[in-house]
Amino acid sequence: MPQQPNPFIKYSNLAFQLAVPIGLGAWGGKKLDAYYNNSKPVFTIILSLLGIGAGLYLVLKDLIKPKQ
Questions:
Q1: Helix (H) or strand (E) holding 15
Q2: Per-residue CA distances from 8 to 5, 44, 50, 57 (Å)
Q3: Which residues have CB under 8 Å from 14's CB, separation 6+?
Q4: Is the pLDDT of residue 67 over 70?
Q5: What are the residues whose beta carbons fall under 8 Å from the beta carbon of 48, sequence distance 6 or more?
Q6: pLDDT tens readout for residues 3-26
Q7: CA atoms of 27 and 33, how far apart (whole Å)
Q8: Cβ distance 29 to 48 under 8 Å?
């Protein structure tokens, strides 16, 4: 019988799956805003929101996955 994973490890992994796309989106948005000399952080906002969507998709996909 396979051993069940520790719930703490499972849920901390979900936190990283949410944080990484948001962080990459914000970082990329700041770089694009600096490159195009935008006075307002348009790219940062857009890419951060896309990162939130991608992160939520990854987390929900893992939470809804049927147990094996």
A1: helix 7-35
A2: 9, 32, 27, 20
A3: 59, 62, 63
A4: no
A5: 22, 25, 26, 29
A6: 777 777 778 888 899 999 999 999
A7: 10
A8: yes
